[in-house]
From TrEMBL:
SUPFAM superfamilies: Pentapeptide repeat-like. It comes from Emiliania huxleyi. It comes from the Eukaryota. Coiled coil: none annotated. Pfam families: Pentapeptide. This is Pentapeptide repeat-containing protein.
Length: 212
């Protein structure tokens, strides 16, 4: 039988299904922690605040409302993961693979995606991304409708075809961002820095551009 959840090389799939309390204890006590899952691993509500999760293999994992505040997810594989309302404030997501992940309503204030986080096609509608570092992030085709991006660093970000309808981008740094074909209808860009940004074909109907 294929491993559903491996903890530092140990198959703990049975605990995931039958003894979640024991699994929670192991997740709390084992250090360093190396996680590897195969879909459809259900880790909703998991508590891993501040943990070292570098290189974790969590593609397709259900991490709904998971507590990952301040966790180090450098290089983590989270393609297609379900992170609805997950708590990721201040998390380190350098080089994390989040293509197609669902991060709707996730708490990502101050999260660090430096070095080009891969978020192509990810859903971030309503996500809280205030002051997040998304410099050079790859967000092509991402759904950022209603996302809160006040003061976020999006310098050089790849946002071609992204949907930023009614996104809040006040004071955001969008210097040299690639916004070709992006939808910024109704977005608030007051005080944002768009120096050098490529906005060919972008839609700005009803957008607030005060001080831009």
């Amino acid at each position: 039988m294929s491993v559903l959840l491996a903890l530092n090389g140990r198959d703990v799939s049975e605990l995931l299904a039958n003894d979640p309390d024991e699994l929670e204890r192991l997740l709390e006590e084992v250090r360093p922690l190396t996680l590897k899952v195969r879909p459809p691993a259900d880790l909703r509500g998991v508590k891993l605040e501040g943990r070292d999760l570098r290189g974790a293999q969590l593609p397709g994992a259900v991490l709904q409302e998971g507590h990952l505040e301040g966790a180090d997810l450098t290089g983590a594989q989270l393609q297609g993961a379900y992170l609805y309302r997950a708590q990721l404030q201040g998390a380190c997501l350098h080089r994390a693979q989040l293509q197609g992940a669902y991060l709707g309503m996730a708490q990502l204030q101050g999260a660090n995606f430096e070095e080009g986080g891969k978020l192509q096609g990810a859903v971030l509608c309503g996500a809280q991304l205030q002051a997040a570092n998304l410099r050079l992030a790859q967000l092509e085709g991402a759904d950022l409708r209603g996302a809160q991006l006040e003061g976020a660093d999006l310098g050089g970000a790849q946002l071609q075809g992204a949907d930023l309808h009614e996104a809040q981008l006040q004071g955001a740094d969008l210097r040299w961002a690639q916004l070709e074909g992006a939808n910024l209808t109704g977005a608030n860009l007051a005080g944002a820095n768009l120096e050098g940004a490529d906005m060919r074909g972008a839609k700005f109907a009803r957008a607030v551009l005060t001080g831009v």
